[in-house]
Amino acid sequence: xxxxxxxxxxxxxxxxxxxxxxxxxxxxxxxxxxxxxxxxxxxxxxxxxxxxxxxxxxxxxxxxxxxxxxxxxxxxxxxxxxxxxxxxxxxxxxxxxxxxxxxxxxxxxxxxxxxxxxxxxxxxxxxxxxxxxxxxxxxxxxxxxxxxxxxxxxxxxxxxxxxxxxxxxxxxxxxxxxxxxxxxxxxxxxxxxxxxxxxxxxxxxxxxxxxxxxxxxxxxxxxxxxxxxxxxxxxxxxxxxxxxxxx
Length: 247
Prior knowledge:
Layout: H1 8-28, E1 44-53, H2 61-66, E2 69-80, E3 83-92, E4 97-105, E5 149-155, E6 158-169, E7 172-179, E8 185-191, E9 195-204, H3 215-246
Antiparallel strand pairs: 1-2, 1-9, 2-3, 3-4, 5-6, 6-7, 7-8, 8-9
């Protein structure tokens, strides 16, 4: 059968199927950019901060500073490729506040916040990291810490996929949960032998529930397109058969 006898509708369906399969295959093979920011300018989220236990003796400046903290609000001022500019407002129990601006590269982990308590240097990861991926690719020690698990968890009355990270360093044990799609930190706990710092997201506009595009969308499109191709092809075959009988 020559291509001239194929209906234009069928040609269109076949073309769409090929394009969809190429896009879907590219996504599955991981050829799309793996390290991209999932937050946007204007996003913000608020973390409640709690301290448990005490230092012995109480001479730890980090403990003395954070034990008086009440909550931390993180706002996204600008996003340029993988570089995210953040504003952190740390509110204390005595109603005072500190305000700090910092930048973070979600691909490399390089950040200007390593000298400040106000914005942790890993408040945002790249979007859609998978199990086994390093938190960042360059900045020590984050390039040695990996996504341990991905599972569903509920924060602020929303259930979504989170990336779980667990590591130890210099007497500190850290457990953290990041929204997989947006990369924002939802919960973190830093523990020592004498005290524990816990931070938990309680509100914000950085919605972590983003459709798994293009995987789910392309898969559905592929299935529908293939089914449509079969229907059109059968209709064409039946029409050709009827013409043969009449002749």
